[in-house]
């Protein structure tokens, strides 16, 4: 899969969680999210236990709470949507602090906030303990369609290239005295976006021709064969299994 590619979410460490094979962590995270989504929203105590399980994982991975909370800000748009639900939903109403709110909207807001936050937190923990290259290898090991893995790989590798090209174009505009201050400057920005698209397309063609000339036939060679022992699978699946017990109790109690 080529050389490694660090990302801002990754936190370098040597914890037991960092050392797990990537495909075990991917499977565990997916299973945990499925269990959380399957939990009835009325079992509010269950979501507190899920949060405690994630806190234990963060402690084992040596991921600080501040690091985790800062990256949870990505879900702010979903929080805004959830806050609006009690005001716009229909059905039975209830008075809260002098405001008429929908009961179904309140439950819906809680459902989105609780399950969304837990899902994002699990994803952040996965990204904090697994490098992008390892994630791609894990997806490949889990038999994800090779074409999707290649698309994700190219997107990751050349995202920074395009971002750097945008930075150079911005510096070139500013060196010529350009400052976007209003609608009248949108034309210049639109032309820059068009030029960036053309350059990216041409770069993609050159990269593809270079790959074909080196023997590329639609699939990338596997350099590292990632395997996992039974003990590593047991360690990784401890989180979703514990969550499954909580989910079952949430449905039965």
TrEMBL record:
Keyword Transmembrane: yes
TM segment ranges: 43-60, 72-89, 109-127, 233-252
Keyword Transmembrane: yes
Lipid bilayer topology: Multi-pass membrane protein
Highest rank taxon of the organism: Bacteria
InterPro entries membership: ABC/ECF_trnsptr_transmembrane (IPR003339), ECF_CbiQ (IPR012809), ECF_transporter_component (IPR051611)
Localization in the cell: Cell membrane
Keywords (A to Z) from UniProt: Cell membrane, Membrane, Transmembrane, Transmembrane helix
Primary location: membrane
NCBIfam families: ECF_T_CbiQ (TIGR02454)
Protein name: Cobalt ECF transporter T component CbiQ
Organism: Streptomyces osmaniensis
Gene encoding the protein: cbiQ_1
